[in-house]
Amino acid sequence: MPIVFFKGTIFPPIYKINIKGLPEVRFQDRSGNWVIRITVEAKRDALSIKCDLSDWQHNDDYFSTLHMRAHDIAQAAISCFCFANGAGLTVLLDKFVDPKGKKFPIRGGKIENLAGFCTAFNIHPTYKGNDNFKAMFMLVSSEAPLFMAMSDLIAAITVHHHAAVNCGRAIEGIRNMIGPAGATKKEGWKLMRNALNADENYIRFITQESEGPRHADRNYVTGPRLQRTIESSWVLMNRFLEYRKRGNLPLPKSEFPLLVG
In which domain, by residue range, is 7 found? Predict the structure, then answer.
């Protein structure tokens, strides 16, 4: 049977962690076609996750599932340690060893097509326009609810299982920032839709996807639905940044056509 490893680090490296001899955790994919048997070891700040596989496949979907399960089991082990010690630690898996022993860095937390949705500012160091990185930094850093909503979106693509909840929270954060003090949620959603040119179904898809996980419903969510949730949230955040930098004026439909769900 093929064997692969994930290697990682526990942050911050301040505890003398020594975890070994844990029982093997078995995971079977939903189709029943392949099985992963996972064991975790940790020493000080170093993590090693061994995966015995019934099958090895060279494709992104398979690796993504494998990475997620390895991270889940490693996090479970460290969470038990954290709970017993009242400690807050973070798990990062940054290396992968394939069945032939070849090592690869893991480029976690990056979804290539999301960059194309950012039109509100330009991060290139030689760009001198008014919508440059420095200008957007000053806008975002001056408004706590805004940088918190943006941080929610970044965590959505950084930490497994947080995507739906964080996207929903980020979008509700935008609603609160657009709506005036004392506005009801219904009034806030309407103002948001009108300001950003998005119909009710477009926004509702994101908020409905977040409802289950937000209430501890851990049912499986398909990859395409999760991808749609993240992409739609990215588009709405970009439009909100456009709205903010234009003096909180509703976006012109000639530049920002209606988003339809």
Answer: 3-105
